[in-house]
Write a structure and sequence with these properties.
The complex is a heterodimer of chains A (762) and B (150). Chain A is of the alpha+beta class and 762 residues long. Chain A is 28% helix and 24% strand. The longest helix of chain A has 28 residues. Chain B folds into 2 domains: 73 residues, Beta-grasp domain (Ubiquitin-like (UB roll), Roll); 72 residues, Orthogonal Bundle (DNA polymerase, domain 1), CATH 1.10.150.120. Helices cover 35% and strands 17% of the residues of chain B. The N and C termini of chain B lie far apart (52 Å). In chain B, 53% of the residues are buried. The chains are: A alpha+beta (762), B alpha+beta (150). Chains A and B meet through helix 1, helix 18 and strand 29 of A and helix 2, helix 3 and helix 5 of B.
Chain lengths: 762, 150
């Protein structure tokens, strides 16, 4: 048995002992060093750029500016084609749109000459008025993008004249009518902030030309196949001339679902014919990659006296920063991965605009949209329960989705396009709630316990859902090859970003083939050597790529049985744990493989299948926290965070647990400590680990994560996704707990001690 | 450029360095890529090494200052790294792995420094080793198992 076992990560020992594994470890020693000159202004036009003196610095090989790179617009978002993100970025542009935007790229023999040359580039800017307040972006007379700049692949509601990157609206039923009929009504506005990914490994890429003069790009990416396509399309190079490879990567969480340095290393290598590398500094990672989309979310809920919700409306203003990567999809997910939780409403409305501002672009980040939507929805639902004086858990139980039910939203809303209708075949929300309620000792602690005059403890709870890939868009594929001695190579395009997906996919193949996991040698994420996969995003790898591995292994088993029949000269055969049997004859997998390589029946067995989702079964979870608030200082301590998750069958329970634990702490960080703070000119104030506020071992209390028994019929061995869901609940859970403690609703993230103190002392 | 001798993992290396070179860059250039670079401000712990048995961020020490000290990277304690690593693997907290060699170096230093382990003292000692993947809880479980702390 491989599935549902705690198999250690196949690459774990190598990583732990520090073997060369990441992009910068593998880059050629003589690679040219590439660095980027970045804009000091949030909005400016480059009037003149002079590289003459910089080029004279000894050891400088090349300087790129907007004058000597292809003048093509594209999107850096790593998404399927055609992308729902606007093509509004140029490799280098005569306009710079945020502090950190690329102005020039310098390549030279070492760091010091490159840094010297960077200082000698003379740039004259025409400084323009920046758009910094996203709530005032639409009516702002200043524009982030010229109306003629940028194109869209299909209508996403973009209107550059109003600084709108994308917009969307849908309504099922008539919410205004239902609000009129409702006995109780609630509305309020919630705010979420820009959060940084702070993955351990800064973004990195290197490039070289291989023996066939092809461009090879090795990059810390979540989406190698999208990188190849976007590079080829934008640079006008046939895809056959490009190879993209992802080695091990030091964390991504969505931050590497995005083109960063790949264009610059490609152009330098293509022009100089030399290998080169670009490793971002931490400051660059903070200010010049991307953040989570800050959002303003207006919630309206109408409820009948019996506690049934009648209608929900969610209206969003989202800030995409300088460029529109993932603008439409993050917006839509805020609704589509939260609102179906309450599927019994008679009407539901969702709408929003995504606006450009002259700040660091927003992009993909684990739980994108969902965490923002969940904060607003699960806070608002709790407020509504308070209004009708019903226990918030009972209120949820009455209204939430259950197994063998559906929501019209699945059909209406997808990611950038229409959705896909689906029946929920696995949903253990009820059980999840029961588990966390008991573990947190809800009945003893709700709503609060006074510890002493200045200290109060309280509990809060929220539920969440996610998806498992994007139906009819995300595709994964696998190739299995039999070797002599009876072991297999599994090649997958899927992208393991540290989650352990290589291991989980090997487990799936091993389970089907009834061999131990170490007989499956995985190789992944190489556009030359592995079949296509969209990459690691949208909680798709276990479900989508996993299904492709499952199908591929089934085909391999079929092929093996056919060959075993031939070798044994029989018509019927059975297989169990490495042995093929027919009546009194048998042959082991090892013997069969050797026979196929060296016997009379020579044949290399290779099978391949691909898979795309026809649905996106949501994992579900409930989460509760106990917090302690010092009413004199506003300091909040998270004492315990309990989560119970339904992600179908956990293929590797340990790895699944770490996915949830890691996500919970990222969510708690967003709730309490993390924020990309900007100054009056748009400059990022906290762009180091010292002052950003990323969680350390000392910041939060105990985590208690468990899984409920569940089986998803459409998933590989009953599995659904688990990568993102864990991040969704903390903001609402903590906000709900604070409300229970001090009677004030915190509506703006992060919830700092200062904000709590102000709320108490209002 | 100045020629100096560095003692790394009990072997002497002759290296040419500039006054401003940081130890992490020198080590990586010598092939010790187990020492990672993460934050540029001495605050994430992925470049942790031992200098005479004390854990330091190698991004914050001039290479020149490492002369006449004993530098230990994870490559010098393969056996020990595997032993500790086994506990991390069993808990699934190796994850992206980028911070793990640095964490192990800090655990080794902690074993030199602390006589008694409690959950609090472990957390406090290892607070400088940041990890974004695991949420720390699983790391703590595995370290407690390794140190046999209940």
């Amino acid at each position: 048995m491989s599935v549902n076992q705690n198999i250690p990560k196949v690459d774990g020992l190598g990583l732990i002992t520090g073997k060369p594994a990441y992009t910068d470890d593998l880059a050629p020693k003589d690679a040219l060093i590439v660095k980027v000159l970045r804009s000091p202004y949030a909005n400016a036009k480059i009037k003149c750029i002079n590289t003459e003196k910089a080029l004279k610095v000894k050891g400088i090989s090349l300087i790129l500016t907007h004058k000597n790179v292809p003048d093509t617009v594209y999107t850096r978002a790593g998404q399927g084609s055609p992308e729902p993100s606007p093509y509004d970025k140029k490799i280098l542009d005569e306009y710079v749109r945020y502090i950190g935007d690329e102005v020039a790229v310098v390549a030279g023999i070492n760091k010091s000459v490159v840094e010297k040359a960077l200082k000698k580039i003379k740039v004259e800017y025409e400084v323009l008025e920046p758009v910094l307040d996203y709530e005032k972006a639409i009516e702002n007379h200043s524009k982030v993008h010229d109306p003629d700049h940028g194109i869209v692949m299909f209508d996403i509601g973009r209107d550059a004249t109003k600084n709108i990157a994308a917009s969307y609206a849908m309504e099922i039923g008539n919410v205004e009518e239902e609000f009129q009929k409702s006995d109780y009504y609630y509305e309020d506005v919630y705010y979420t902030q820009a959060q940084a990914h702070i993955m351990s490994e800064p973004h990195a890429a290197y490039a070289y030309l291989d023996l066939q003069d092809r461009l090879n790009v090795v990059t810390s990416t979540q989406t190698p196949f999208h990188v190849r396509r976007i590079l080829g399309k934008t640079l006008d190079i046939p895809l056959s001339k490009i190879r993209v490879f992802k080695p091990r990567i030091g964390g991504g969480y969505g931050g590497k679902q995005f083109i960063h340095g790949e264009f610059f290393v490609s152009l330098v290598t293509l022009q100089t014919k030399k290998s080169c590398k670009l490793i971002y500094t931490r400051k660059e990672v903070f200010q010049a990659t991307n953040t989570r989309h800050p959002m303003r979310i207006k919630m309206r809920i109408g409820t009948m006296a019996d506690g049934m919700m009648n209608a929900i409306e969610m209206k969003i203003l989202s800030n995409t920063g300088a460029y529109g990567e993932h603008s439409l999809t993050v917006l839509m997910v805020a609704g589509s991965k939260s609102l179906p939780l309450y599927n019994k409403v008679k009407a539901v409305k969702f709408s929003g605009d995504v606006v450009y501002t002259n700040t660091t672009p927003a992009g993909a980040f684990r739980g994108y949209g969902a965490i923002q939507g969940n904060f607003a929805l699960e806070s608002a639902v709790t407020e509504m329960a308070n209004i009708i004086d019903m226990d918030p858990i009972e209120f949820r139980r009455k209204n939430m989705i259950k197994e063998n039910e559906t929501s019209k939203i699945f059909e209406v809303m997808g990611e950038g396009t229409e959705g896909t209708a689906q029946m929920i075949e696995s949903c253990k929300l009820e059980e999840c709630i029961q588990v966390v309620k008991e573990k947190i000792k809800w009945n003893e602690k709700y709503p609060f316990v006074e510890v002493d005059e200045k200290t109060v403890r309280s509990v809060g709870l929220a539920i969440a859902m996610q998806g498992s890939g994007i139906p009819y868009i995300d595709m994964g594929s696998a190739v299995l090859k039999l070797n002599d001695d009876g072991f297999f190579n599994l090649q997958v395009g899927a992208t393991d970003l540290g989650t352990g997906s290589d291991t989980v996919l090997a487990q799936i193949a091993a389970e089907v083939l009834e061999v131990s996991t170490d007989k499956i040698i995985v190789y992944s994420s190489d556009t030359d050597q592995t079949p296509y996969d969209v990459g690691a995003y949208a909680s798709s790898t276990t479900y989508v790529s996993g299904n492709s591995v499952y199908l591929t292994a089934r085909e391999m088993l079929k092929a093996l049985k056919e060959r075993a029949k031939q070798v044994l000269k029989v018509d019927e055969i059975s297989y169990k744990k490495g042995v093929f049997t027919s009546d009194d004859q048998s042959i082991t997998l090892v013997e069969l493989s050797n026979e196929l390589f060296y016997g009379e029946n020579m044949k290399q067995l290779v099978t391949s299948e691909s898979y795309y989702g026809k649905k996106s079964p949501p994992p579900y979870m409930a989460c509760a926290c106990e917090v302690e608030i010092n009413k004199e200082t506003g300091v909040l301590k998270v004492l315990e965070c309990v989560a119970s998750v339904d992600c179908g069958v956990t293929l590797n329970p340990n790895l699944a647990k770490i996915q949830v634990e890691g996500a919970l702490v990222q969510g708690l960080g967003m709730t309490l400590t993390e924020q990309a703070n900007r100054g009056p000119k748009g400059q990022l104030y906290n762009n180091t680990f010292l002052n950003y506020g990323g969680p350390t071992k000392m910041d939060f209390g105990k985590l208690d994560v468990s899984f409920v028994d569940s089986y998803e019929p459409s998933g590989p061995f009953g599995a659904k996704s688990v990568g993102e869901i864990g991040i969704d609940t903390p903001p609402a859970v903590i906000s709900n707990a604070i409300k229970n403690a001090i009677g004030v609703r915190m509506k703006e993230l992060p919830i700092t001690p200062e904000k709590i103190w102000r709320a108490i002392n209002k | 450029m100045t020629a100096i001798t560095l003692n790394i993992n009990d072997t002497d290396y002759e290296v040419m360095v500039d006054g401003g070179d940081m130890l992490v860059d020198t080590l990586r250039a010598l092939g010790f890529t187990s020492v990672k670079k993460g934050c540029d401000t001495g605050s994430c712990g992925v470049c942790s090494i031992l200098l005479d048995g004390k854990v330091i961020p190698s991004c914050s020490l001039f290479t020149m200052k490492a002369r006449e000290h004993k530098i230990l990277t994870i490559d010098g304690i393969e056996e020990k790294a595997r032993e500790i690593g086994h506990f991390l693997l069993e808990e699934g907290v190796d994850q992206c792995g980028f911070c793990t060699p640095g964490l192990i170096m800090s655990i080794v230093a902690m074993e030199n420094d602390l006589k008694v382990y409690t959950e609090e003292s472990i957390k406090h000692y290892l607070v400088g080793n940041l990890c974004r993947c695991t949420g720390y809880e699983g790391q703590l479980r595995s370290i407690k198992k390794y140190l046999e702390v209940s």
